[in-house]
Design goal:
260 residues, alpha/beta, 2 domains, 9 helices, HARBI1_dom, metal ion binding, Transposase_HTH_dom
Length: 260
């Protein structure tokens, strides 16, 4: 197999952050000699997450075995995921916002043996459900652990405790019609139903402005999916949560002016 130099659209700060985590973990373990140093392992993991390069291609490019490449990527993802903000930490950040935007997205996966829970009737494909919170500028604030794709957005938000957490911050949150009946501080557009087949002019105006605000939140979903590994997960769906949390940490390092 041939290999060639390539680029990863990330800053050196992101690479250094992950490399420092790997060095600290190696020092803690006092493990044996590794084929790649911490910087090269960090670059391998970032190429997988950002560019979506397969483990086989990375193994060829970095001159390691497929098993070693897989182990390096898994180790890096676990280290990053361990430093991800939980909902309580995210809530404190949300409390400083003028308003928040809540949306759900489906991350496609390969079919698995027990595929029924992962089939989304809305998207007509298999995947996992991830809830995303954005600020008023469309910046990604937090992404939830992954649930099977068949789970409805409102059910997913309640499962993660998002509705109660957002209400406790007393910050108005805009969400689409999938969150009808959420209550609390969540605001959804007016919806036609059996006893209200038509919306009034005022309700249509409210829905129009509501949609303009929610459209900004789509930037957060787009930001999450710029990490090409999420184009289609080819691993166990149980690994989706760790991958999303790892990406969230890297995103905050990449965009923060004063990273921790």
């Amino acid at each position: 197999m041939l290999s060639y130099p390539s680029a990863v659209a990330l800053s050196s700060r992101t690479l250094n952050h992950l490399a420092d985590l790997i060095r600290a973990e190696r020092a803690r373990r006092r493990g044996r000699w590794r084929r790649l140093d911490a910087g090269r392992q960090a670059l391998l993991a970032l190429a997988h997450l950002r560019n979506g390069d397969t483990i086989t291609r990375l193994a060829c490019g970095f001159a390691v075995s497929v098993t070693t490449a897989w182990r390096y990527v898994r180790e890096a993802i676990n280290l990053l995921a361990a430093h991800a903000d939980d909902l309580n930490a995210a809530t404190r950040r949300i409390g400083r916002l003028a308003y928040a935007i809540l949306d759900g997205t489906l991350i496609p996966i390969d079919r698995v043996a027990d595929q029924k829970p992962y089939y989304s009737g809305k998207h007509k494909r298999h995947g996992v459900n991830v809830q995303v919170i954005a600020d008023c500028a469309g910046r990604l604030i937090w992404a939830s652990p992954a649930l099977p794709g068949a789970v409805h957005d409102l059910t997913a938000a309640r499962t993660h405790g998002l509705i109660d957490a957002l209400t406790s911050t007393n910050v108005m949150t805009f969400a689409d019609k999938a969150y009808q009946g959420a209550g609390g501080s969540v605001r959804t557009p007016f919806k036609r139903h059996r006893y209200r087949p038509r919306l009034s002019r005022r309700q249509k105006t409210v829905n129009h402005h509501h949609a303009k605000i929610r459209a900004i939140g789509e930037r957060a979903v787009a930001t999450l999916k710029t990490w090409k590994v999420l184009a289609k997960l080819r691993c166990c769906p149980g690994r989706a949560t760790a991958i999303v949390q790892a990406i969230l940490v890297l995103h905050h390092v990449q965009t923060s002016r004063n990273p921790r």
